[in-house]
Amino acid sequence: PAVLALASLDVARGARDAARARLEKFVAEVPTSGQAMMMIANIPQANGAPPGDSVAWLERTVRAIPANPQARLALIARLLQREDRAAALVAAQAATAAIPDDPDLVEALGQVQMAVGEPRQAAATLRKLVTLQPAAARPNVLLADALIGAGDTTAATAALRRALELDPKADEARRALAMVALRENKPADALA
User: What is the per-residue pLDDT across 45-55, written as a single tens digit (0 to 9) for each?
Assistant: First the structure.
């Protein structure tokens, strides 16, 4: 809609209040406009910081459009930005309950679980990500990180080797594999 473009122009010229007013009026008329609500949540304050009520707007977006993974990811990211890991975990769990097979949401849950110090739960979550993206190396690297955190270096090594099978150029997997070898006091394996 044109109102979104006009609000973007308002923000670009520094008229944040005008952009917000324009978008809030539009949301009152079209309460399921996730794009408008997310724009409100992202209109920066004069100092460049997100608005103080950005979490409330993102939560409102999630309630209005529960199947919108972008809104859920934005909410999780904003909560992490505020260092509210407990709330981010709740939001990530709710996101994967609502949209269980979205790889980005599953990855976000695994990352938040790691951030709150739950590597075993993260490993279980990231195993699902590996299942959702069987041809991708990155999920295996993320899984390995969680497994290392959980103290299972054998399974972590297997996940990293799988990542390298999928993508022989996966430098992140190669570096992590070397770090596991060094951690286990196997320097010869680190050089392999």
Answer: 766 767 678 89
Residue range 152-179: average pLDDT? 95
Sign, CA torsion 104/170/168/113:
negative
| Per-residue confidence (pLDDT) for residue 43, from 0 to 100 | 87
Contact 128, 139 (CB under 8 A): no
Q: Whose structure tokens read 């390995």?
A: 144
Handedness of CA 133, 136, 138, 143 (dihedral sign): positive
* pTM reported for the whole predicted model: 0.87
pLDDT, averaged across the chain: 93
Alpha carbon distance 114, 123 (integer Å): 9
